[in-house]
Amino acid sequence: MKNDQFVIAVYVENKFGVLTRVTSMFTRRGFNIDSLTVGETESPEYSRITLTMSGDGYARTQMLNQLRKLYNVKKVELLEPGNSLERELLLIKVKNLAETRQDVLTAVNVYRGSIIDYSMDAMTIEMTGDPSKIDAFIELMKPYSIIEMCRTGLVAMQRGAGSILNIDRPDKAQ
Amino acid sequence: MKLTGAQIIIETLIEQGVETVFGYPGGTVLDIYDQLYKNSDRIQHVRVSHEQHAAHAADGYSRATGKVGVCIATSGPGATNLVTGIATAMLDSIAMVAITGNVGTPMIGKDSFQEIDITGITLPITKHNYFCNDITKLADNIREAFQIAKSGRPGPVLIDVPKDIQNAVWEWEKEPIRPVFENDLAREDKVQKAARLLNECKRPFIYIGGGAVGAKVPDQVLELADRIDAVIGCSFMGLSAIPTDHPRFLGMTGMHGHYASSMAQDQADLILGVGIRFSDRATGNKDKYAKGAKIIQLDIDFAEIGKNIPVDVGIFGDIKDAFTRIAEKVESKERPDWMARVEALKAEEAAQAVEVDYLTPKKVISIINEKTEADSVLATDVGQHQMWAAQFYNFRTKRTFASSGGLGTMGYGLGGAIGAAYGSGKRSVLITGDGSFGMNLNELATLANYQVPVTIVLFNNGTLGMVRQWQTLFYGKRYSNTTMQPVLDYVKLADAFGIKGYKVTDEAGFAAAFEEAYNSFRPALIDVKIDVDEMVLPMLPPGGSIEQMITKVDMKGGAQA
After folding, report:
1. Model pTM?
2. Between B72 and which of A59, B23, B250, B474 could a Cys-Cys bridge form, CB atoms 3.0 to 4.6 Å apart?
């Protein structure tokens, strides 16, 4: 992760158009989203958005506060890097050539990825890990002719027994 | 009881205490209008000439009363015409509920006739909005919309209702009005820190904004200022909260603020901001803004704390509660040095006044000051006349100012004045300019139709005065597209609508015309000829700081600091 990058977890009501509200707010305020993932949660009422963004302390505070103002947003927490688990999924398709095949397979093995599709011309690798591992693996694959690739963006949650939904925040302003 | 969607809309509006709505009928709101027709004894509808002014009128209604203003428009162009009015309300935090019709749900997404995604369009300019495609949720959506519009920092909420939902039938029962969401209360440590800074300071300046008006806190502000020898200034949105002629009140600060107020703010060592967001027009160059002062910011919207400028103590929470708690902890204290300095600033300001023998905006507004009732709402459009009104009008009663501050919407005025007149049940005065008036003069039809008691004072300088002023000062007098052509005969224009018109060129003429027009309790228009190069002064150049304040301009030589 870049130095000024940070991860925000957002619980939103699982309703039509809520994701648009969130992304539209970022556009309006001139904030850039590095990655965004959204999906179901333990409760059917809520969806969870994980945002990776970058900016200084001012931008970070503004992003958190502006998110908290949205009516359909129930909970917004900054995930501290040292205290959270971060994972990303990568699918990457590279050329399957006789002279490089063994190098690619070794790399996949070392990085604990798996080959999920294999043909005479190409192989597709699945890999999960934190973003720096994914970055490193992509870097490693570059000489082997990447045909296409796709990253999910980060999903993250805090370590330990707690849920961010239960964090009590008496002072909304950061 | 079982009601149709259109009936549910009207019954729920009445349940929410709505007496007057502003709107314009059309294809997808025919069912709502049919119910308005049948219920005209229970809810009044004012039909404007263009939907934009339905939104502006709802906004003016809310500014005058503090209640939620309501407007209705049809789908497509009707809905998009509301957009400027909704954005105006958003930027000034005005409570509004806008109801639009849309094509029936089977037609949604097919680019049907007069179909538009108005919830998508208004996403960034509403506090919240609803696309209601479920009859079972319609009443709740409306109730929630009122709750959201009124709660915390107010704002506009839009509900888009497809035509088939208006015809669908569902169970409806009257419910009590839901209370606004409870405001958070300020943290005690912050309150104590603010009180300590106030006790320690030598030169306190209380700076109030629109949030202070909404929180009904101005009387406490005056009481505290009296006890600690503080002076009070305001942003544009804070006007009318404190009586203009109160000795503690120095007026508006900022780009066209009062000299004494801006200077006192610059010289203060403590600024207590109440419901204010320190916008660019209020601060000028942020790096040089109030450098010698500690800043306390008190706001109901936590996202405003420190958003525009860094503050020493940011207090988020219910403004009235926090202000009261701070004031309790502040010791009464005389600050004679500060008072002497403020008096000197006031004297410098008075010495800047130049006597001339022709009719100036200042003279016109002082005549208006003498002849209006204290509770008449003053509405304005946007431009030079708006700043003159802000500088010279004698506000005596809270909520007597309806003007577009944040968005700066030319054309706001007539709609705003109509809404304010309905809301307050009193006469309104509209101060406008020939530029802005050109954007909304179709609403003369509404004035005439309902005989709304609005006296229009039109500053006629034959130019887009504020833009011309910038062209004079910063663009080498190249007057690109600012001269008004053709020269309109406003008396004839008013006459065409059946409205009494006056044309005046001198003080006595204006005084007589205003006296007659204002006391007729009918719409009237007074065309006031003023000089094309009349300027709004003082002025901080855009992005400039207090040292760059322009206090006089020699048209041959240029600006002087």
Report:
1. 0.94
2. B23
Name the strand (E) or helix (H) holding B169: strand B169-171
In chain B, what are the domain boundaries?
2-171, 188-351, 361-560
Q: Amino acid identity of B130?
A: Y
The letter for the amino acid at A20 is T
Annotated active-site residue B410? The verdict is: no
> Residues B420, B377: contact at Cβ < 8 Å?
yes
**A24, A66, A172 ranked by CB distance to B123: nearest:** A24
Name which CATH class applies to B188-351. Answer: alpha beta
| Parent domain of A142 | 86-151
Topology of the domain comprising B361-560: Rossmann fold (3.40.50)
- Same-fold call for B2-171 versus B188-351: yes
Q: Is B466 in the active site?
A: yes
Q: Helix axis angle, B259-267 relative to B336-352, nearest 10°?
A: 150
Answer whether B303 sits within 8 Å of A68, measured CB to CB: yes
Please give the tally of structural domains in chain A: 2
B549 is catalytic: no
Q: Do B307 and A62 touch (CB under 8 A)?
A: yes
Q: Which residues from chain A sit within 8 angstroms of residue B123, using beta carbons?
A: 20-21, 24
Q: Report the candidate in B176, B160, B131, B167 with the shortest Cα–Cα distance to residue B2.
A: B167
Q: Between A and B, how many CB-CB pairs are < 8 A?
A: 40
What is the Rg, in whole angstroms, of the alpha carbon atoms belonging to chain B? 24
Going residue by residue through chain B, which has 561 residues, state the pLDDT in tens, using 9 for 90 and above: 999 999 999 999 999 999 999 999 999 999 999 999 999 999 999 999 999 999 999 999 999 999 999 999 999 999 999 999 999 999 999 999 999 999 999 999 999 999 999 999 999 999 999 999 999 999 999 999 999 999 999 999 999 999 999 999 999 999 999 999 999 999 999 999 999 999 999 999 999 999 999 889 999 999 999 999 999 999 999 999 999 999 999 999 999 999 999 999 999 999 999 999 999 988 989 999 999 999 999 999 999 999 999 999 999 999 999 999 999 999 999 999 999 999 999 999 999 888 899 999 999 999 999 999 999 999 999 999 999 999 999 999 999 999 999 999 999 999 999 999 999 999 999 999 999 999 999 999 999 999 999 999 999 999 999 999 999 999 999 999 999 988 899 999 999 999 999 999 999 999 999 999 999 999 999 999 999 999 999 999 888 888 889 988 877 655 555
Gap from B8 CA to chain A (nearest CA, Å): 23
Establish whether B252 is a catalytic residue: no
Contact (CB, 8 A) for B540 and B531: no
Residues in chain A within 8 Å Cβ distance of B131: 16-17
* C-alpha–C-alpha distance, residues B17 and B294, integer Å: 43
Structure ipTM: 0.86
